TrEMBL record:
Oxidoreductase as UniProt keyword: yes
Domain Oxidoreductase molybdopterin-binding: 85-221
Keywords: Oxidoreductase
Coiled-coil residues: none
Protein species of origin: Paraurantiacibacter namhicola
Protein name as it appears in the record: Sulfoxide reductase catalytic subunit YedY
Keyword Oxidoreductase recorded: yes
Superkingdom of origin: Bacteria
EC number per UniProt: 1.8.-.-
PANTHER family attached to this UniProt entry: BLL0505 PROTEIN, PROTEIN-METHIONINE-SULFOXIDE REDUCTASE
Any one GO molecular-function label of the UniProt entry: oxidoreductase activity
InterPro entries: OxRdtase_Mopterin-bd_dom, OxRdtase_Mopterin-bd_sf
Gene3D superfamilies hit by this protein: Oxidoreductase, molybdopterin-binding domain
Catalytic class of the enzyme: oxidoreductase
Gene: yedY
């Protein structure tokens, strides 16, 4: 089933104009992906609980922005004005092949839509409908090396002069509800909610769901990255595994 989805994704991917990897590489990637998926499947499929999902009718009328509500650079302003035509998500680190995925490529992959509740550690919640490809699909395309342990999320914004970043383990990275969202409530992601891309980590507190996503980096240690605790807020004393 998954294999068939990936094949369909492959066709759509080429239709979207992938210039970075050739056709042969792509079919190699599909074969490899079965392997990379299996490596984590004993934890990721079936064994991990899903976060509750809600009905479209439960969606909050307004999904507030929190933390950074924009990226304060000329480059971001220009990107926003161009409809993020040149925005890419870079997939790098301990992968068999690095990827540079445009928004069109990400939208051409199989999509997941989920209505979930976002819980911020500051004591507010909101329900939203998020759409995007599963991070697992993207990681399968890149091919994760067997010694990889974490997936790092790189963001365009800074808070108090420091780059915002986050990280999850492989089980949460491959979790079916972990998606790279480009839409909220059926519309392109608003600026305040992380346009054009944000990750959704549905079983953990809001600060894990990194906005203004520019890169996904596969690593085997969190040491030496930022303050070494695995995320912007973690470096400031919050828990790395912020389960809800
Ligand atoms: N890049 C980035 N991602 C971020 C933040 C941020 O400041 N920068 N804030 C986090 C926090 S604390 C929360 S609660 C949510 C807020 O998401 P929202 O703005 O869509 O409500 O984003 C999280 N992701
Ligand atoms: Mo938050």
């Amino acid at each position: 089933m998954r294999r068939r989805n990936l094949l369909a994704a492959g066709a759509a991917f080429f239709a979207a104009g992938c210039s970075k990897i050739g056709k042969t590489d792509w079919f190699g990637a599909i074969v490899d992906s079965a392997t990379s998926w299996h490596k984590f499947s004993h934890r990721a499929i079936g064994s991990l609980p899903l976060a509750p999902e809600y009905d479209r009718a439960d969606v909050s009328p307004f999904f507030r922005g929190n933390g950074s509500q924009t990226v304060d650079t000329d480059a971001y302003r220009a990107a926003l004005e161009s409809g993020f035509a040149d925005w890419t998500l870079k997939v790098s680190g301990m992968v068999d092949r690095e990827l540079d995925l445009s928004l069109d490529m990400l939208k051409a992959l199989p999509q997941r839509t989920q209505v979930t509740r976002h819980d911020c550690v500051e004591g507010w919640s909101a329900i939203g409908e998020w759409t995007g490809p599963q991070l697992g699909t993207i990681l399968d395309m890149a091919g994760i090396r067997s010694d990889a342990r974490f997936v790092l999320f790189r963001c365009a914004d800074t808070l108090n002069g420091a780059e915002y970043y986050e990280s999850v383990d492989m089980a949460d990275a491959m979790h079916p509800q972990t998606i790279v969202a480009h839409a909220l409530n059926g519309e392109a992601l608003p600026e305040r909610n992380g346009a054009p891309l944000r990750v959704r980590i549905e079983r953990q507190l809001g600060y894990k769901s990194a906005k203004y996503l520019t890169g996904v980096e596969v690593v085997d240690t969190l040491e030496g990255i930022g303050g070494g605790e695995g995320g912007y807020w973690e470096d400031r004393g919050y828990q790395w595994y912020a389960g809800i």
